Amino acid sequence: MSRLQVVSGKGGTGKTTVAAALALALATEGKRTLLVEVEGRQGIAQLFETEALPYEERKIAVAPGGGEVYALAIDAERALLDYLQMFYKLGSAGRALKKLGAIDFATTIAPGVRDVLLTGKACEAVRRREKQGGDQGSFVYDYVVMDAPPTGRITRFLNVNDEVAGLARIGPIHNQAQAVMRVLKSPETAVHLVTLLEEMPVQETADGIAELREADLPVGGVVVNMVRPHVLDEDAVRAASGDHRKDITKALAAAGLGGSTRLVGPLLDQAAEHAQRVELEREQREALAKLRLPTYELPFLGEGADIAGVYRLARELRKLGVGA
């Protein structure tokens, strides 16, 4: 399995929750996972019911089997300071530039550079190894999971090489972008898209996959989130599509339940609505099947997406073979 797992999806599909569950699933059985946030929303901290994440890697959860999940909220300004120190040794000078507002200016006026910094930090974590004397040991993290921008921006965000091409054709920034792309366009990376069984999210997922493929970025799979259970079998769904009020009223009266006939209308209306939803979901599953990608379905969490729900979804992903 690819060591960098990028999770994107249309807003409202629960991509942050899925990214967190994926990090837990991959950390099962003693593995170590880093969960990375790049949008500054602190969604990971809210899910795991912890304080706001600083710009440092912090352990936030223990997975079944003793694995560990660390989290990092990447800040573009801090990443640029790290970059200046790494390539130019501008420790105190870099901090002075920040006070003057130059760092904020650089990360705002040049979004391509900002994306290089954000993706570069994640890719550095993918490549980082333990130091054992003068030799390099095993990887610090078995997997890095990125809670990435939404589907409409994911290709541009990841395709940082094109973004900086007009800004820096040579030099450290260019070299950094090239190093990032070597990871992002390799088998080390897989980009997963989260969707719902609804027309707009499924269409946006299909469009996003087409864009990723055109940019030669490695597509992983599709995660269908918030799947509601079917409460009617196929025969009942077909029956609900017709008008059977008279037959049901007659049957209730014959059974001595004539007083319940006022409930027939509302119950049949609900059944018809359910039948319409089942048909819509069938159509969306067919559309997703045409993408010819691994597809994983996660249940709707009636109790909400809290930390218990994240662990439940992680167990579901393990059952589906993710990280096994």
UniProtKB/TrEMBL annotation:
This is ArsA-related P-loop ATPase. InterPro entries: ArsA/GET3_ATPase-like, ATPase_ArsA/GET3, P-loop_NTPase. Residues 5-184 form the ArsA/GET3 Anion-transporting ATPase-like domain.
